[in-house]
Amino acid sequence: MQNNVTPDETETFEPKIIAFCCHYCAFAAADLAGTMRLQYPPNIHIIRLPCTGKVDALYLLKAFEEGADGVMVAGCEEGSCHFTNGNLRAKKRVHHVRDQLEQTGIEGERLEMFNLSSAMGSRFAEIAHLMTDRIRKLGPLFGNESAN
Amino acid sequence: MIVADQKPINEILGMLERYDKVLFVGCQTCVAVCMAGGEKETGVLASLVRLARQKAGQPIEIDEAAIQRQCEEEFIEPLEADGYQAILSLGCGVGVNKLADHFGIPVLPGLNTGFMGHIEEHGVWAETCAGCGDCVLHRTGGICPVVRCAKSLMNGPCGGYTDDGLCESGTGAPCAWIAIYKRLKELGLLESMTETSPPKDWSKDRFSGPRTRVREDVRL
Ligand code: SF4
Ligand code: SF4
Q1: What are A2-40's pLDDT values in tens digits?
Q2: What are the chain A neighbours of B43 within 8 Å (beta carbons)?
Q3: What is the CATH number of domain A16-139?
Q4: Which residue of B148, B175, B181, B183 sits with most ligand 2 atoms within 8 Å of its CB, as the best mutation to test the pocket?
Q5: pLDDT in tens, B76-120
Q6: Which atom belonging to ligand 1 lies closest to the Cα atom of B116?
Q7: What predicted TM-score, i.e. pTM, was given to this entire model?
């Protein structure tokens, strides 16, 4: 406090990340991560969906509009979706929204889709770290416009 | 239905550049079914534009509305546009025209209106009728030669089709006249292929100027 060294902003910024997780795999994996007492950043705010096939462009965009700096969609592994191909549909929607965000000048990396099984508690924690680090590096979604 | 597509987001952002309070109006009929300008697409586009403008440091206030049909005055009437600098319509071109007639503020098109068509499969739409004003489908087994033949031939085929029955235009589309031949054969109506169609009355097509239809018996 007393010294004049400004801490690197990217290290102090705590991003808000919304994670849309499917009930059968990603949410169960997040639950398992907790049961396994694995540490993962508190930046991840989980919204449980019955299936990532429920993901809609509007959910993703509204999450950003309402203050998320990053959004992730996490579903079952490809080929093992509880509802056959909901995760493949989600993938297409996520890609579409990423493209649109990029065209408007917002980094596409702020939005990502992951696939994992319900047994992958440690992978969930890893993804949580990965997304938090990535968004922390990118900085807040808004608030640094003058620097652009 | 009328099939349209959303304009590229950058074109839309360009049109909106000078405004900071805009009303987005979707249409709940054709363009909702073809997933271009219904209530949901209006919400998605508004969200994207708000994010883009916020990111650019020039926030914009957008309200969203969706009316049943932008091509009918009775649905436009209840819409309030006071206080907005402009309207972005996600209706087809007809809707944009109608809103522009109605409101004394600029009305911008959010869509590129394409064609009259049908749903081929979820997410795929195809043109089926060009509204030529003088339908010939009774002679062609219900397959439109105006739209589906690259040359709009009335007495096809032209002879240029490929060995595998594709149109010589290179679009990859099947030759319409081969399709017509097969359909007429199935229907047992092949003899109509031997009849030469008289010259078509193109004066009823849109190239003769804007068309109006009047039915005196139902006018109020
Ligand atoms: S012949 Fe004319 S009216 Fe009939 S389907 Fe073709 S374009 Fe439409
Ligand atoms: S190949 Fe068939 S569809 Fe193509 S222009 Fe000739 S007649 Fe028309």
Answers
A1: 334 445 555 689 999 999 999 999 999 999 999 999 999
A2: 58
A3: 3.40.50.960
A4: B175
A5: 999 999 999 999 999 999 999 999 999 999 999 999 999 999 999
A6: 8
A7: 0.91
Tell me which residue of B45, B51, B140, B134 sits closest to B89, measured CA to CA. Answer: B45
CA-based nearest distance A93→chain B, Å: 12
Question: A54 and A3 in contact (C-beta within 8 Å)?
Answer: no
Domains of chain B: 2-115 (3.40.50.2300), 132-202 (no CATH)
ipTM given for this complex = 0.88
What phi, psi does A17 have (nearest 5°)? -125, 125
How many interface pairs between A and B have CB atoms less than 8 angstroms apart? Answer: 47
The CA distances from residue B78 to A51, A136, B73, B86, in Å, are 39, 47, 9, 17
Scanning A36-116, the segments in alpha helix (DSSP H) are 57-65, 86-103
Contacts of B47 in chain A (CB under 8 A): 58, 61-62, 64-65
Vertex A97: Cα angle to A92 and A103 (nearest 5): 130
